[in-house]
Write a structure and sequence with these properties.
The longest helix is centred in the middle third of the chain and has 22 residues. The strands form four sheets. Strands 3-2-6-7-1-8 form a six-stranded parallel sheet. Strands 11-16-15-12-14-13 form a six-stranded parallel sheet, sandwiched between helices. A two-stranded parallel sheet has the order 4-5. It has 30 helices and 16 strands. It is α/β, with parallel strands linked by helices.
Length: about 700
């Protein structure tokens, strides 16, 4: 590829980035404006014009997926030798390379998770942490380390930052100190220590610094608004006195300050680097004008410093549907409405992998998983098992590697599909959900990836495809699975879909209740909504529920961030759900003692877990046996038919009519139609239909 070809197709601002081959350069890039395109073309243009050799470039980003995408694009642009890594991956490689030279022996062993050591440290301090408190304590240790806060200074620093540790600040400081002592005694190092130690080696050993700086002379840092003080320390150590640095970021997408990240490095770049070139990317190629207008509207209401730094996006796509605002009686109704609309989109031809449901916290996913199971909608929970660690994927890679050794030059897609057919890939997926379907989806994702590679690199064969897989496995850059994505707003950053559903948009959830401590935290929650809106290319639905549970008090208020954006009267007409569940003016009472029920399993059972109850144990066992037969016939996990809690509730209430059965939480309209006759037959002491329903 010639240098002029690298510039072809770039808009004026992207071209300005690409041609700014010498630093310092600051690129302020709004969502969907092609920042990755701009910075990869900048690197490639610098390589093709002889400004720098690819081996002298270090591009740093925050996720292995983003690093893998950078490497892939640079390879297509004729710059395959560029190092594109996360901060941690770059530091890990440097530490292991230089450690034998300056220290000797084996470097400290890396601690993948802090939870075990933090739990042990808490016990030494005679503190008892539950699972949630333990995670929060590990987060506090991580925050303290990235902000370069020592145990003795933790209490004061935490108070100044407005943090809420899981224990008294003095006790948390003791846990932090004990954690550090255990780590040192066992010659362990965590991710933060790895960055700190790498910076220390470069600082204290000039010969190491000289060797590193001779190797890397050209630096690019993506997502610069998310840099924390420890990462900034390492970056400054890498640079030394040089200024060949290009940073890219969006102050509107600063959503990780709770981890210690600070947008001040991005916003203060020209102060730190006088004379730096600043280029703004605001042309949005991702979303329709309707979505862009809403995104701009979200930020138009920002207050304080956040308002001064916002980027106004300019839509480049043609018109699309107007975003939908939808209000519901309760979270179950909200999830069912989302599932119904997604079913319609799937029937209209929108691929499941191009649809996402986003929420503020992980706990909000449960009703959607249930609603999707009821409607037969395939889904993938982001953050679940790593793709390349799945047994079927490991087996497929082994088979592909073997086939690559005797590659006959057959077209890539056909060759890959032939190999995957031997591993179990069929033209049509298995019916229902379950292990067989998940295995098929993994293999289908590999086949789709082969098609993508063939389009990008028509000359690629099996050897190149296997190399692509091995590189992706190393960076955990998984291909897209065929299923609707369920994810938090934080984990959705950097991703995009044709259709996005932003759910649970109520006060106390977005903004989250603890954000009320300061105006800055509220503004970060507003930016979180902005990130969610800008994930959508075409279809966008924003929804909220007035009550948590069916029959609960409808006292919730939709998010303040929707004021002035959503219609005063939004969403579909209220649906009377009394035919399915009894509606009361308050929380559902226990049918034994009358206490209000709050836990999900108690609401399903209709009683407190501790309250006594009589039920037909034989009926419960017969229903469990029936459920096994149905799950095998439909090739789905047993819980997809009915959960244990729902079967327990059915056994306790022994319904004899469809109305009685429908009133039990966990028995939706779909399951009532699918399994109602069988369940009622079992409750009457009869045998269910011999021909089980598909």
């Amino acid at each position: 590829m010639e240098a002029d070809e690298v510039l072809a197709g770039l808009d004026p601002e992207q071209r300005a980035v690409a041609e700014a081959t010498r630093g310092p350069v600051c690129v302020l890039a709004g969502a969907g404006t092609g920042k990755t395109r701009a910075i990869t073309h900048r690197i490639a243009y610098a390589v093709h014009t002889g400004v720098v050799s690819p081996q002298r470039v270090l591009a740093v980003t925050f996720t292995t997926r983003a690093a893998g995408e950078l490497r892939g694009r640079l390879r297509q642009l004729g710059a395959p030798g560029v190092q594109a890594r996360t901060f941690h991956a770059a530091a890990y490689k440097q530490l292991h390379y230089f450690w034998p030279k300056v220290v000797g022996g084996e470097p400290p062993r890396l601690v993948e998770s802090k939870l075990g050591l933090v739990a042990e440290a808490a016990r030494l301090c005679r503190l008892s942490f539950g699972r949630t408190e333990l995670r929060d304590a590990a987060t506090e240790v991580e925050w303290a380390k990235v902000t370069q806060t020592r145990p003795d200074d933790y209490a004061a620093a935490a108070a100044k930052a407005g943090r809420t540790p899981p224990a008294e600040a003095a006790d948390m400081a003791r846990v932090y100190e004990a954690y550090e002592r255990l780590r040192r005694d066992r010659n362990l190092i965590d991710f933060e220590g790895m960055l700190e130690l790498t910076a220390a080696i470069l600082t204290e050993h000039q010969e190491v610094a000289h060797q590193f700086r001779d190797q890397y002379r050209h630096f690019v840092v993506d997502e610069y608004q998310d840099v924390n003080p420890l990462q900034k320390l390492l970056l400054d150590t890498w640079l030394g006195e040089r200024e060949d640095l290009c940073v890219v970021g969006d102050p509107n997408q600063t959503i990780y300050s709770f981890t210690g990240a600070s947008p001040s490095y991005l916003l203060g770049f020209t102060v730190e680097h006088p004379g730096a070139k600043v280029i703004k990317l605001v042309r949005d190629y991702r979303s329709t004008p309707q979505v862009v207008r809403l995104a701009n509207g979200v930020l138009a209401q920002a207050r304080g410093d956040a308002r001064a730094h916002r980027l106004e996006l300019v839509a480049q796509r043609s018109d699309g549907p107007t975003p939908v605002f939808s209000e519901h009686d309760d979270e179950v109704a909200e999830a069912e409405a989302v599932a119904k609309r997604i079913r319609e989109l799937l029937d209209e031809g929108v691929p499941a992998r191009e649809i996402a449901v986003l929420f503020r916290i992980n706990a909000q996913s449960e009703p959607y998983e249930q609603a999707f199971a009821d409607c037969g909608v395939p889904y993938v929970v982001k953050g679940a098992e790593r793709f390349f660690e799945r047994a079927e994927v490991r087996q497929a890679v082994v088979l592909l590697r073997g086939a690559a050794r005797s590659d006959t030059g057959e077209p890539l897609v056909r060759a890959v599909r032939d190999v995957l057919a031997a591993a179990g890939l069929t033209d049509q997926p298995p019916e229902g959900r379950g292990a067989a379907r998940e295995r098929w989806e993994s293999l289908a994702a590999l086949a789709q990836l082969a098609e993508d590679v063939a389009i990008d690199r028509p000359s690629a064969g099996l050897r190149e495809f296997v190399a692509e897989l091995e590189e992706r496995a190393g960076s955990q850059h998984a291909p897209t699975l065929e299923g609707v994505t369920l994810a938090t707003l934080h984990t959705a950053k950097g991703l995009e879909w044709d259709a996005v559903f932003l759910t649970g948009l109520v006060e106390g959830t977005l903004p989250i209740i603890y954000a009320e401590k300061s105006p800055d935290q509220i503004e970060e929650e507003r930016r979180l909504l902005y990130v969610g809106v800008t994930r959508a290319r075409e279809f966008l639905t924003l929804s909220w529920a007035l009550a948590r549970s069916p029959g609960g008090r409808k006292g919730r208020r939709r998010s303040r961030f929707l004021d002035g954006l959503a219609p005063q009267s939004a969403g579909p007409p209220r649906v009377d759900r009394s035919a399915r569940r009894p509606v009361s003016s308050g929380p559902q009472p226990c049918r034994v003692c009358g206490r209000p029920l709050t836990a999900a399993i108690e609401r399903k059972l209709g009683r407190c877990e501790s309250c006594p109850t009589d039920y037909d144990e034989d009926l419960l066992e017969r229903m469990k046996h029936w459920r096994v037969l149905v799950s095998k016939r439909q090739k789905v996990p047993a819980y997809v038919v009915f959960t244990d809690a729902t079967l327990q509730a059915i056994a306790e209430r022994a319904p004899l009519s469809e109305a009685d059965l429908a009133a039990i939480p966990g028995v939706g309209a779909v399951k009532l139609g699918r399994y109602g006759a069988d369940v009622l037959a079992l409750c009457r002491g009869e045998e269910p239909a011999a021909d089980l329903v598909d």
